[in-house]
Amino acid sequence: MLLQETTLAWSAAIRERLANRYPHIVEIEHGGAGGQMVLAKRPFEVKQTMRSPAKWFPAMRLVAQTALGPVQVLNLHLHPPVSPRGSWVSGYFTTGPVRREEIAAFVEGLEPGMPTLFVGDFNEEAQGDAVRFLKDRGARDAVSDHLGRQPTWRWPVGALTLRFQLDHVLYQGRLRPVDVQVRQAGRSDHLPVVATFVAQ
Predict the structure, then answer these.
(1) 129/83 Cα distance (integer angstroms)
(2) At 76, phi and psi to the nearest 5?
(3) Closest to 169 in 3D by CA, of 199, 136, 131, 198
(4) Cα(88)–Cα(120) distance, rounded to whole angstroms?
(5) Alpha-carbon span 123 to 57, nearest angstrom
(6) Where is 120: in which H helix or E strand?
(7) Distances in Å between the alpha carbon of 22 and those of 14, 54, 59, 75, 146?
(8) What is the DSSP-derived secondary structure letter of residue 190?
(9) 53, 102 in Cβ contact below 8 A?
(10) What's the pLDDT tens digit per position in 183-199?
């Protein structure tokens, strides 16, 4: 289980409720709600945490021991679509290159040839710069491939609710997704995404 936007309070609550089910837990803190957590039933090793070149949220690279063998995972929370002046409107149209710069920096430390998952809050849809960067290098997006444009994020604005697909599970190597779901659950603006993979 890969979580983004965690806080110290959330971390304590998650550990209290889920530590018995997921005995292997690692977290990184990052101001406000910028932390990350990984919860697993099997052992995994955090290989590195990486600072964003845009000075936003860090990324975590880990290798999980799975039933399919070792799988490396990037837990991601990319730059939000907000401009340097705080505009979400102009940021929606101008911040794609920033996310591309982030993902390009984050993938440099990957171990070549190992099955890989790129998971988290990309803050952009399937046609975004960071997603396209990974696809151009052979990755596929399990969320958009299986669910089309189904939203993973919602935000009420007056009488309207904005809905976008901002969360993705990209994969590369000897992995094949057999089930992908967006669960209509929780009180976060992001909905839980659940993906099941088998060996290719």
Answers:
(1) 16
(2) -120, 145
(3) 131
(4) 20
(5) 12
(6) strand 116-121
(7) 10, 32, 21, 17, 27
(8) B
(9) yes
(10) 999 889 999 999 999 99
Looking at residue 7, what is its pLDDT?
Answer: 87
Confidence (pLDDT) at 88: 73
d(CA 167, CA 164): 9
The type of residue at 151 is P
The tens digit of pLDDT for each residue in 31-76 reads: 777 889 999 999 999 999 999 999 999 999 999 988 888 999 999 9
Pairing state of beta strands 69-77 and 160-164?
unpaired
State the average pLDDT over residues 72-98. 87
* Contact in structure between 79 and 100 (CB atoms under 8 Å): no
CB atoms within 10 A of CB 98: 22
Contact indicator for 142, 176 with CB cutoff of 8 Å: no
